[in-house]
Amino acid sequence: MVYEKTQIVLNQAVADLSKAASIVHQTHWYMRGSGFFYLHPKMDELMDELNETLDIVSERLITIGGAPYSTLKEFDEHSKLVEEVGSYDKSMTERLEKLADVYAYLSDLFQEGLEISDEEGDNPSNGIFSDAQDAVQKTLWMLQAEIGRPSGL
């Protein structure tokens, strides 16, 4: 069975997860200020989680006959996330707000993946999107709590 639309959203996730990891990495490198001691190692954890999800999504895409994006150029061309040049002039709150926006976007993307994979009857991909959405929503909640935003999607 061909899961054409699921392949497209899986590959979108490949591009966006790759760029999301880069955005988190930039936060890791350029953070300064209150919260550094606990947030700096937290960024390593977030990068590991994003990269693990990226691997699962990419391998599923290959399993169903797709070809995941695999170059920085492809990630940049296809991702809907926007990167900025690194600088030390942003506050911790500004950096965490950016990450909250990234995680909210990923949650929405995974919701789209849930709907498309359900429509096409691709239960394994549906499970991947469900697990990924659960993980990013938990991180989003934590980011929102850290910056004083009310939780909720």
Walkthrough of the structure:
The chain is mainly α and about 150 residues long. The protein has a single domain (about 5-145), classed as Ferritin, CATH 1.20.1260. The protein has 5 helices and no strands. The protein has helices at about 5-30, 35-65, 70-80, 90-120, 125-145. α1 packs antiparallel against α4 and α2 (about 35-65) packs antiparallel against α5 (about 125-145). It is globular and about 50 Å long. The mean pLDDT is about 95.
Topology:
Elements: H1 4-30, H2 36-63, H3 72-78, H4 92-120, H5 123-147
Biggest sheet features: none
Distance between termini? 34 Å
**Helix coverage percent of residues?**
over 70%
CATH class: Mainly Alpha
Q: What's the short version?
A:
The protein has 153 residues and is an all-alpha fold. The chain has one domain: Ferritin. The protein has five helices and no strands.
